[in-house]
Design goal:
Structural class: alpha/beta
Oligomer: single chain
Largest sheet: 9 strands, parallel
CATH class: Alpha Beta
Strand content: 5-15%
CATH architecture: 3-Layer(aba) Sandwich
CATH superfamily: Ureohydrolase domain
Length: 322
């Protein structure tokens, strides 16, 4: 969309005809769809559907991540309309990205939520698009992974997080943001041997065989070596990438429910995400952005950048024809 058009049009989330290309719009005005992409429920021809899941009833500490999707969308409007920095291609011009809106669900019927989310993601995958999900607390990754495993089989997981989220919980009906990857491994939808958790800095004696690159090791060996190890672990298996914003140190992302010191810097996270180009990624999410605990908005800004990088990873995989 040309700069001249921006002088006569607003709310490109509704008015743009071509879903591809940059969106020149006042940063402080207009509808805040993710990266100013078009809002639509029509996924015909869509490569990547960005969707929000404003759910935080699974938290063990501070709620507030139900406000994450809205904050991430608003923060994404701060990003320049230019191609995402550091990539040799422009995912916004080469691929069709749309904002698919939020998952509709009844907040008072929590037991119905997991299946509603799985069905929501399955509808996206069924039409041939990939999903990038804006959370929401981290429990949401479990119902999402169910949809991916139904389509692709057991997934390799790349998880950037302060916590493993594999604490024992054999009650599959419990909804808890600290046990969902235990359930994912136990139910066979995640393959632990080809999965890796990056940035861990809390104690969990049994990691179920998932490979760990903890935060201290990330600081010691650096992003390039982390990427090399992660790629070796996942190989060319279908990958789901889940980024808990508390994987970042609280200095970079204070707005989250369970902050832990000693985490990744935003620079390290950016280098790791960009270095993962070439993995067989099928989808991803960014979770645990809790705006009430961040008066600066920096956490939502970080979340918006993470979601953009996941879109780029997906676009690169599609570009390679994988």
């Amino acid at each position: 969309m040309a700069l001249e058009d921006a002088k006569t049009q607003m709310d490109h989330a509704f008015t743009r005809d071509d879903p591809r290309g940059p969106s020149f719009e006042l940063t402080f005005a207009g509808a805040t769809s993710f990266l100013r992409r078009r809002y639509t429920k029509d996924l015909t021809g869509v490569d990547i559907a960005i969707t929000g899941v404003p759910f935080d009833q699974a938290v063990t500490n501070r709620p507030g991540t139900r406000l994450g999707p809205r904050a991430i969308r608003e923060a994404s409007s701060l990003q320049a309309p230019d191609p995402p920095y550091g990539w040799p291609f422009d995912v916004l011009s080469e691929r069709v990205l749309v904002d698919y809106g939020d998952l509709p669900f009844d907040y008072a019927k929590i037991s119905e939520f997991p299946q509603a989310l799985t069905a929501h993601i399955s509808s996206i995958l069924g039409i041939g698009a990939a999903s990038v999900v804006l959370g929401g607390d981290h429990y949401i990754s479990f119902p999402i992974l169910r949809a991916y495993a139904e389509k692709y089989g057991p997934m390799s997981l790349i998880q950037i997080d302060a916590h493993t989220d594999t604490w024992p919980d054999d009650d599959m009906e419990r909804i808890d943001h600290g046990t969902m990857f235990y359930k994912a491994v136990k139910s066979g939808i995640v393959d632990p041997a080809t999965s890796v958790q990056i940035g861990i800095r809390t104690t969990n004696a049994d990691t179920l065989g998932v490979n760990i690159i903890d935060a201290a090791e990330v600081h010691r060996i650096g992003p390039d070596m982390v990427v090399s190890r992660a790629k070796e672990i996942v190989g060319q298996n279908p990958v789901y990438l889940s980024f808990d914003i508390d994987g970042l140190d609280p200095a970079f992302a204070p707005g989250t429910g369970t902050p832990v010191w000693g985490g990744l810097s935003s620079g390290q996270a950016a280098a790791i995400l960009r270095g993962l180009a070439g993995i067989n990624i099928m989808g991803g999410d960014v979770v645990e952005v809790s705006p009430p605990f961040d008066t600066t908005g920096a956490t939502a800004v970080a979340g918006a950048h993470v979601a953009t990088e996941i879109c780029c990873l997906l676009g690169w995989r599609m570009r390679d024809g994988a």
